[in-house]
Specification:
Number of helices: 6
Keywords: Membrane, Transmembrane, Transmembrane helix
Protein name: DUF305 domain-containing protein
Radius of gyration: 21 Å
Structural class: mainly alpha
Shape: elongated
Number of strands: 0
Organism: Alteromonas naphthalenivorans
InterPro entries: DUF305_CopM-like, Ferritin-like
Order of helices and strands: HHHHHH
Distance between the termini: 57 Å
Largest sheet: none
Number of domains: 2
Helix content: over 70%
Strand content: under 5%
Length: 169
């Protein structure tokens, strides 16, 4: 294995590890869904890591053409993945909910486990927990309903396929 192959393997492995670690702060295992947004975030973090690491270790990598290819390629990957995260242009209904469920789960985890002593802040944290739990249930129901019955496109369908009441808003 050449040192460039090893370098790229290190970047790919680290990027995959970062994607996995983004789910470590979800509250519950069943709140983990693949998220395109998190995937793009891992990609842009990996691309910046490649640039930083190569620049720090340039004396170990003597091939200027390969170095420039890695730097420019990583820069391009960063710009594209950052655009995809910021624009959300590839994110539709199901992908949006699959990204939002882990996001809401993080709010539950931090609200429930924070060392809160002010009664007003505790009240707010409890309200956040209740709202996020309700919204996760609603999104899971919608994901299942859309998978089973397709998307709702008309007002008549909205009436016939209403989301169950999962608690106070």
């Amino acid at each position: 294995m050449t040192k460039y192959t090893k370098f790229l393997a290190m970047i790919f492995t680290s990027t995959a590890a970062m994607l996995l670690m983004m789910y470590f702060n979800t509250y519950a295992f069943d709140h983990i869904f693949f998220s395109e947004t998190r995937f793009y975030m891992a990609i842009y973090m990996g691309s910046i890591m490649a640039i930083i690491m190569l620049l720090f270790m340039l004396n170990m990598y003597e091939n200027k053409a390969k170095n420039w290819t890695i730097l420019l390629g990583s820069g391009l990957i960063f710009v594209i993945s950052l655009y995809l995260v910021r624009s959300q242009s590839t994110i539709a209904d199901e992908a949006w909910m699959k990204a939002m469920i882990p996001h809401h789960s993080i709010a539950i985890l931090t609200s429930e486990r924070a060392n809160i002593s002010d009664k007003r802040v505790l009240k707010l944290a409890n309200e956040i927990i209740a709202a996020q739990e309700r919204e996760i249930k609603e999104m899971k129901w919608l994901l299942e309903d859309i998978e089973k019955n397709g998307q709702v496109k008309t007002e008549a369908e909205v009436e016939s396929r209403q989301v169950p009441d999962f608690g106070q808003k």
